[in-house]
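INPUT
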Amino acid sequence: MTERLVSHLRYAALAVPNFEEEREFFRKYWGLTEVSAEDGLSYLAAEGSTEPFILRLRADDKRIDLVGFAVEDRDDLHALAEKLHAEDVQFVHEPRELTGFGGGYGFRVFDGDGRVLEFSTGYQTREARKIREREPIPSKLSHVVFNSANLNQSAQWYIDHLDFSISDSLTRPDGTDMMHFMRCNATHHSVAIAMGPHHSLHHLSFEMRGIEEWMRGSGKILRSGARMIWGPGRHNAGDNTFAYFLDPAGNTIEYTTELAVLDEDTWSPHRLNISDVSNQDQWGTAQAMSEIIARESFNDIDKGLFVAPPV
Amino acid sequence: MRRIHFAADFGGYELGRALEARAQAAGHDVVWHGAEQLDPGDDYPLFAIRVGTAVVADQDAGIDAFGVLVLDEAAAGVVAANKVNGARAVTAASPRAAANTREVVDANVLVLEGIAFEENAWLTISAFVTASLPHVVDLGRRILQIEEYENSGTIEGWAIQLEPEQIAVKRE
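OUTPUT
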């Protein structure tokens, strides 16, 4: 099994022009807890997660600010930094004490397409609590999905530099790759990359406690006026249930539950043809993945490529 | 903590107050939405809407809440309460039937007849508020289809840029 220096996904950070509306949506409806806020910046935690925050919102033109990953300790962090330097990965900043909420020690780089990634360790964790039965709030950030104009090149960067593995892939009927689900631990995927017309955020996915909480939460989001653009259904790739919504900034966000945890020693990746409806939706009720449903999640072109966010 | 929103019309007032007292004694957080005293001939729709609205607001806020209506005509209360977005009101005449409504459709408002036998009515409420949706995805999916229609007039996750064959149901 591959030795990985990245331990898990920590958070996603987005910049949005309608900051207050987005912040209110995530607090009031999506079920996150604001743990720190300053002018034009909001840190949102999930009650079920020990991460100090799982989503950071910033008021600015729409972009992905960065995606944060955890590393076990400083030795691993320095080893990863040295490895990425040796591989000519472009750094935003070297390992140093982090000054954002939760602190810690870490560094930032640009991935192969120019998205900013942060690797950190030793940050202040939060006391998590068990989500109550029927409590319609997320327990943690499940995964982040990017659109890429160059799918395989984008995915290969994560394999080459961060030792991610492909857990499953979706293909078009002609066999070309459409989406790769990638893991950095036993969770089926923490990152996925989908073929799109440009680089952008495809969606953020949030894990719910169970089916009952997933259903209750999704009902609440429907009542908030957000549109459910795909679902409810259950994926074959990952075995997770899904319901996708559009947030006020036009980003796709998902409530999911029961994402598969793999036995990495015995797992072998599948290539699933999207024209076979059952590959995308085990129940066959959420409509097949098509160009038209994919388009809902193409999102606006990411303006943050190879531009480091100010914080 | 479990919260139960109660209301009754003229036909269920006496039983409704008795059940409210039992629920309080059993340690539930009880909220009364009915008239302060028996009001002969009062109308059930307002009570049904009040209870349904309170239950959905609490559930969305993460509070484990249920509603109980005790009415002259239970079926009429079901119709009224189900006009509240997110309410899933049912009648049930036995504990087993009440638990079943929780299990198949995550019912959140129980409507009883005012002529019900108090002991059985209490056991029915107890079963209703303690049963839960089984960990079966099909049930959750079907409820979400109802809720999607209730909110956007479509079923199956299609809301924007519809192609003709994807248009499910129109609200008008």
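end of record. The domain at 140-296 of chain A is CATH 3.10.180.10 (2,3-Dihydroxybiphenyl 1,2-Dioxygenase; domain 1).
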